[in-house]
Every structure is written in C-alpha cells, then in structure tokens.
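Board notes (copied after class):
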Amino acid sequence: MMIKKSILLLICLDAALIGQAHATNVDVLTLGSLIPPQSIETFKADNPSIDLKVRPAASDYDDLTQRLLRDNVAGTVPDVIFQGYNRSELTIRRGLAIPLTPFLNQDKAWADTSYEAISNELCRSGDTPYGLPYIVSVPILYYNADLVHKAGGDPDHLPNTWPEITALAAKITTLGDNRIGGYFDYAAAGNWTFMALIESQGGRMMSADDRTITFNGQEGLRALEIVRDFGKAGQIDMPREQAYQAFSAGTVGMLMTSSGFLKTQLKQAKFDLRTTPIPITDNGRVPAGGGCIMMLARKPDQQKAAWTFMKFMESMPVQHMVSDVTSYVPGNRKATAELEASIAPQDARMASIRASMKAGRWYSFPGDNSLRITDRIRVLLQEVVTLRRSPEEALEEMTKSVQQLLPK
C-alpha cells in the first residue's frame, strides 16, 4: 500500500513538472497600484499553462518608459506592458509594440459582445490599435465642501468657470488658520494637467503632423494665467503627495488633479468631499490619464498567452474590480456604462465618468527628447504658480525651449 502511494506521488510530481516545463512564460511590467493582486491570483488559477510573472513595479509612467528603453538595450523587454497613454506612441515608434488587429479580428465575437474601447484615439497609430485602453483618469476638481461653505460658497452649486473657481480658492485662503484655498497639480506626469487646461479650451499642443507648436496661442496663455491665479489665490509650492495629505487633513479647500486619487481621498477625508469636472468648451476635450495594455512579445506562443492575459484584464469583472480599487474609469466602455447605471447622480465618481466621455489622446512630444521637454515645461509651470515668472514670459520661454528640443 505504501509503495502504491509512493508511485502515485511520483506520478503527480512528474505531471506537475511536465506542466511547469511546458508553461508559457509571460513577463508583465506595470505600475504598483494598477493590477489588484486578487486578479493575478485568479488568472493564474484559471490558466495553469501560463507562467505569469509581474516584474517589480515602476513608480510612474515616465519611470516605466525609462525602464522599458533600458530593457530594450539589454534585450530583456517584457511581454506585456501597462503603458501610459502619453508614452504609447513612443513605444510604437520604437518598434516595440505589436499591432493588435489580427488578435481582435480573430476574437471578433469577444470584441463585439464584451469589449469596446472608451476612446478610439487611445493606444493607436493611425487606424491601427496597438493597445487596449485599460483604465482612464481625467482631471477633476475636488472640493472640501465644509471650507467652501465657510468661505461663503454653495457646495450644492459649485463654480463652473476658472475665474469663479480661483476666486473661491482665494476666499478659502482668507479664512486663515493656515488654510490653502486651492492646489493645482502642475507636477503631474507628462504635463498632463497643463495639457488639460489647453485642450479643454479646444487648443492643442502641436499640429497634427507634429511639426508646428500650437500651444503658444491664446489657449496656452490662458492656461498659464489659470496656473498663476492658483498662485495668487494662496497655493503653497509643495510636493503633490504633501498637497494630497493636506487636502485630506482639511487644510486645502480644493484640488485640481487626477480622478485616480478619488478612492484614497474618500477613505481619508473627514469632511464632505465633492467633485466636479473641470470647465470644458463644446469643442474641448481632456487628455486621458491612465494607460493601455500593450503586447511586446515576439514569439507566437507568448503572444497567444499574452493576449489571453490582456483579454482577462479587460473583462467586466476585472474592470469593475480595478475601478473599485483605484477610482479609475474602466477602459472598456461597456464596463463604464454598467458603472454609470449603478451609482447615484451625486456620487463623487460621476464627475470622472462624465468627463471621460470627452477624453482623448494624452499627447507626447515627438523625438528622443520627449522626457526632457516635459521636465522643462514642469519647471516653468512651477515658476508661474510661485509667481516668479509671468504667464507671458513663461509661454515665450516654453516655446523657445520646446522648439530647441524637438526633432530637427
């Protein structure tokens, strides 16, 4: 009897080893908070033939992109990457991303019944999809309704123009007790919030062919004036993490930043928290924050396994799980529609759901100096919000600096 058990145990061990030997490896690179651990556990349990490995997380999309470029030089590119929308074009231009048209055509039934991209501008080059929109954040305004009321505002009728918004921030600052009326998140990765100010007016950063700067017109100047007005209203220059903590502690009246932080703020804030979309014109849009799932695998068996994982992360249950954990809007529009139908109109998440309907491409400057350009713009935004440089001076210097760093 003991011999039979030993033989049975050996057979089971051999089977397990054979299964492991034939497992297809899929390496994934992402940000730390974007993949709920329970989703990975579920995927591994449902797909034992795929050996999924999630690499150490990047801190943000710029860090992720730098790591990707280093991996490319070293020959260790991951099979799947959760790339920021603003860096997806760079990933495509470097020849790293695999076109997804054959996979979508092959799985047409899935695409027709279970998946719809929240925006056709995202993760594409021309008409070719190179990624599946995974999550979407949009710039929104967070309000401490208690401070709004103390400053003489009406939390049930929050302002809907920038002059009214920054005027309210100034009133909150005058309440004293180290109150800060408002905080504009100028240091967001890829100049995201600054681009939002321009594009929400109908402006664009560059011409469609990426050859001509277009942010240096009235929309760009007005955007910098709004940044300056936050400084005039009492914004203190501090790291964004510190600003978020100050807001949740009740000392900052309003935040203009990503909707992706809503879950954390709702958990930490001890006051009545309200949200609104930022002002946007009829022909305006907002750049989609967040990222798409891109396939970089080259071998057919790894591509097949990578596609299985990508579809799983776009499934309704996972999309709802990610949205619940992170406050991001699902990149699968079908999941977004279900979410909108399930929550109350006054729910704090509704601002980002509505704004996401006008979400478009998160622009990234062309060429190898893209990261240097965004860093230079960030420095100039800091000088404007701290009132060390006027909007006019900053716009002139921004135009000059970007022009020098663009491809010749």
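Comment from the instructor: The chain has a mean pLDDT of 91. DSSP finds 18 helices and 14 strands in the chain.
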